[in-house]
Amino acid sequence: MQRQFSRREFLRLSAVTAAGALAAACQPMAAPAPAAEGVAPAAEVVTLRLAEGSWVGPEGIKFWTDDIIPRFELENPGIKVVYESAESDDYADKLYTQAVAGDAPDAFFIWWSGGLMEKGQLLPLDDYFDKEYMSDFFPGNIAGQLYEGKLYGIPKYISTICLAYNKDILDEAGVEYPDGTWDWDKYLAACKACTKRDADGKITQWGTYVAHEYLPHWVWQNGGEWMDGDLFGTQPLFREEKALEALRFNYDMIYGPEPVAPKPGDIADFGWWNVFSTGKVAFMESHSWTVTNYMRENAFQWDFTDLPTGRGGKRAGLTFTNGYSIYKGTKHPEEAVKLVKFLTSPWAARQMCIGILGLQPARRSLTDVWDKESMGARAGYDVAAFSRIMDYARLMPEFKDSQKIQEIFNPIWQQIWVTGEMGLEEGVNLIADRINEY
Questions:
Q1: What tens digit of pLDDT does each residue of 111-160 get?
Q2: Which domain covers residue 232, as residue numbers?
Q3: How many structural domains compose the chain?
Q4: Alpha-carbon distance 316 to 16, whole Å?
Q5: What is the pTM of this model?
Q6: Which of 344, 341, 343, 373 has its CA nearest to residue 358?
Q7: Half-sphere exposure (CA, 13 Å, Cβ side) for 402?
Q8: At 219, which CATH number?
Q9: Contact 317, 159 (CB under 8 A)
Q10: Residue where one domain finishes, among candidates 303, 336, 362
Q11: 223 in Cβ contact with 242 (< 8 Å)
């Protein structure tokens, strides 16, 4: 039976989990004996800068500064790690600027390192991480760390998507809970049944929320393609018939004659990452890292299930590139590699999974830990839905010269989905034309 957690209960549970795991894994080390006369002093300690974040508040930062980093330093007494925050809105731009200026952190977390890879700012890792080490990671998550045949990053966690649903809304609407077999039409019917209007016809409760930032898996479910290739494509295919049909399905949920999803601004101050917690949306495509967020924030009964299939029964999912990379200009490559190996080790991945961060492990060998031992699993939620989708998940598409393509893509995409200033077909064709011209 599921129950709601207060923030205090949640933090207590996460603290107990983390403390127990650390206590079991860490044994006290004897104090070093004083140096004998005539013995050379110990080598100077190497200092590394690590850029990281928790995105769950101060308690999450302490996970790094009070637990993970001290454990690494305990095992590597010749290395000191200085924590730098990766949580600012301009972090990616700042990191790029630092790298070009010769002042980037030695090791850092980043979601998409394509620009840094293409500009030669990352240390190639092939000589440090062999095939045996990499064999435990999901191939789809490794793909985004490769450029021109070389490895530039090690996956940190899985960020994939499944469907969250508000049980209270479904109960009130008389809609059965999804069982993982729904297709688009059954999903849309449920969304319509859960959409409520006031006496003036204004929508006060929505069936779903369309995250227009993440739509490629809908295209794949319909048998279409986003571009020519899984990564670094050069030809857009999202205006082809099957792809456009999938985009139209989502577009009409917002702008069609029977809308079931809010327009941007209808639910003020909320976005795709937290709108489900308002309790005003019946269904929400949610990332695996939202589990602990929802446990803290949702004041209603809820759960997860598999994404709906395409009308022909095709399944597809989306996974994202994230991981640790090392700055090519680091003065301490060997020590930085030790740090990244520690941060991507089974032990560290397990702590990130079962503690307050609640991150789905990128290592296949830890799937059961996520499915059965993570905080969401222990609270009774079907977090294994995020594992099931990995059988069908493909990497979020990134075009070649992705930074330049985003400059072309984003302004027009915003006019389609956010401001409504441009129609779907017009906007999609314009984007495709301009990418092809580039």
A1: 877 678 888 999 999 999 999 999 999 888 888 899 889 999 999 999 89
A2: 161-318
A3: 2
A4: 37
A5: 0.84
A6: 373
A7: 18
A8: 3.40.190.10
A9: no
A10: 362
A11: yes
